[in-house]
Write a structure and sequence with these properties.
two-stranded antiparallel sheet; mainly beta; 13% helix; four-stranded antiparallel beta sheet; 82 residues
């Protein structure tokens, strides 16, 4: 279990309202974010293996992570799966 999860968002197609099969999870702890990536990467969700990595704000993609946890604007790096 990951106690430092702040939020989780599944990305949905605006027209079909169906999942785009990826999302973002924000953590308050960088250490727990890294642990989640290490433990959950490759684990199956239904019939597909999850691919997890640190996410970045679009404006800072080429630079270093802005914080830990997120996918939301201003949140910094996040773990994401798709």
């Amino acid at each position: 279990s990951y106690k430092s999860i702040l939020s989780a968002n599944v990305i949905v197609d605006s027209i079909t309202k169906r999942s785009k099969k990826f999302g973002f999870v924000r953590f308050s702890s960088q250490e727990e974010s890294q642990r989640a990536i290490a433990e959950m990467n490759g684990q199956y969700l239904l019939t597909r293996p999850m691919k997890l990595n640190v996410g970045y704000k679009k404006s800072t993609q080429q630079s270093q992570p802005s914080s830990y946890g997120g996918g939301n604007e201003g949140a910094g790096p996040s773990s994401y799966g798709g």
